[in-house]
Fold this protein.
Amino acid sequence: MELKAGEALFFPPGFIHETLNVGDTCSSSVTYQFTDPAPTLYWRHFMTRVRRTGDLSECWKGIERLATLGKRLPLPGDNAYEQGLAHAIELDLNNDGLIGEEELQRAVQGHWLEALSFHDPDGNMELTITEFAKDYLKYAAIKGRVATERPIEGGRSRAAEDEDDDADDDDLSDDL
Ligand SMILES: [Ca+2]
Ligand SMILES: [Ca+2]
């Protein structure tokens, strides 16, 4: 895509890009990043790529806060589903099987809507304790898998190459 003077281009989050000045004079490039609204669906659907992209490393802490609702992640091999379910039950103070707005507020303060969006694969604006436990397990598995990888020549990991054969693995809502 070739931009002309006065034009701007909007990149979605994590969009790897390169620019080239094709004019006869110097040019300037100005980047402005938006923090709100958080791209929760993008993070959810492309989690393994997000976790492998160093340019997005400053987002990882915030993503983990949403993904775990403040729960410390277990070590790889621990029983993450049961730990996630136990955490969800702790958060579900009124025992209705849902982690509601006020309960999310307690877990992630002002980011409750982002947390709900992140964890609500069926889009019904309700977060059940099992929805969270499944996501917690999958996030823990992705983080554990990425942590074991080593970059190969060209900066891509072997797991990233494997991923090309099964790109849907990214989505937290898919089965592992
Ligand atoms: Ca509840
Ligand atoms: Ca739901």
Observations:
- The chain has one domain: 40-170.
